[in-house]
Amino acid sequence: MLALARRFRPALRLLPALVTLPLLSGCGMVVLEPAGDVARQQGNLVIVSTILMLLIIVPVMALTIFFAWRYRAANKEATYKPDWDHSTQLELVIWAAPLLIIICLGALTWVGTHLLDPYRPLARTAPGNPVATEVQPLDVQVVALDWKWVFIYPEQGIATVNELALPVDRPIRFRISASSVMNSFYIPALAGQIYAMPGMETKLHAVLNRPGNYEGFSANYSGAGFSKMRFKVRGMDGAGFTTWASQTKGAGGTLDRAAYLRLERPSENEPVRRFAGVEAGLFDAVVNMCVEPGKMCMRDMMALDAKGGLGLAGIHNVRPLEYDKTAGRGSGPAPDRKMVAALCLPLPGDEGKPVMERRVDLSPLTGAGLSRPGSLPRATFIAAADETSIPTPIPFAKSNR
């Protein structure tokens, strides 16, 4: 009995692995069986590439076993040629076959890279269903926080936390950014992953073709709560999406800058949350890293730099940036977060007025040691409202010291 156990010991070691195989039958291969057309094309690309590579791998593995068996020492009938060193026919096969496969893979990659570019608007929602010119994609603004996701629907004027609802068969245009560190926005059933980075905006175009409940998550390590940084994806028909948006409108609450700064604090296992309203321009403020009141936006800073900067008068207005040097973004009290102060901001009621007619509030100017500007009849400086307007600096009054 002991001898029998020793004989079958290698097979017994494989028994636990064999027992777990039936459990794997319930796993869904969502990457190869997705619910979105873009993800399906990407899955097909993986399958075709794998088959092309197997055209070389399988014959090589088979020939390795064949040669080892045919030319074994016990086979006296095998041809023995110790001086053989070259065969033109064999060289052609060895080099031509891999070369052809590399050419096919290169062509496939070139075409797929351009057709599946995440920044490229969709030309179809499914095979044989081109996107009509009058169809407008659904805009969804995505912000990766520590450790949760915020989704803003500017068309509907609503926002959610850790819940993404999408209508089926309608193109979706994602605008993606982050608050502190780099994350990766990934919904396997919808499309491939794309990075979410602070101070930058990435785009992703996709479509969902089947209703259902799916999962999204961050595919890039971003700290202690990374493993729980997941969100629900709900695919529904057009009527269902309209009903969901109406219900969210009745949930109450507004995602303004103050609410966003509270939400920005690092936390894990955040429940699904809905906001009936969103402050205008919030996502652009996130991208330009100026959600905090009185902080200069990156676009305004770059516009000032393009005009030569503020010179010596503005040197003390620059304070060290501290985002994630010593603590997570949003983890400290607001006064402890260093920033570059905005020089002036449009006051309530002045947003729609021409630049020269706007009032100027000098209170945000908090530069250490910087003399206050003199009283000017007209403001000649205004923070850039967009990338196309370049502000002109205010002439600062000379110091009396």
UniProtKB/TrEMBL annotation:
Q: Which residues form the Cytochrome oxidase subunit II copper A binding domain?
A: 135-247
Q: Coiled coil where?
A: none
Q: Which cellular compartments is it found in?
A: Cell membrane
**Taking the first listed entry, what is the main subcellular location of this protein, grouped into a coarse class?**
membrane
For this protein, the record's Gene3D superfamilies field holds:
1.10.287.90, Cupredoxins - blue copper proteins (2.60.40.420)
Q: Where is the Cytochrome oxidase subunit II transmembrane region profile domain?
A: 23-120
- Protein keywords: Cell membrane, Electron transport, Lipoprotein, Membrane, Oxidoreductase, Palmitate, Respiratory chain, Signal, Transmembrane, Transmembrane helix, Transport
Q: How does it sit in the membrane?
A: Multi-pass membrane protein
Chain ranges passing through the membrane: 12-32, 44-69, 90-111
Family matches, as PANTHER family? CYTOCHROME BO(3) UBIQUINOL OXIDASE SUBUNIT 2, CYTOCHROME C OXIDASE, SUBUNIT II
Record family assignment: Belongs to the cytochrome c oxidase subunit 2 family.
What is this protein's record name? Answer: Ubiquinol oxidase polypeptide II
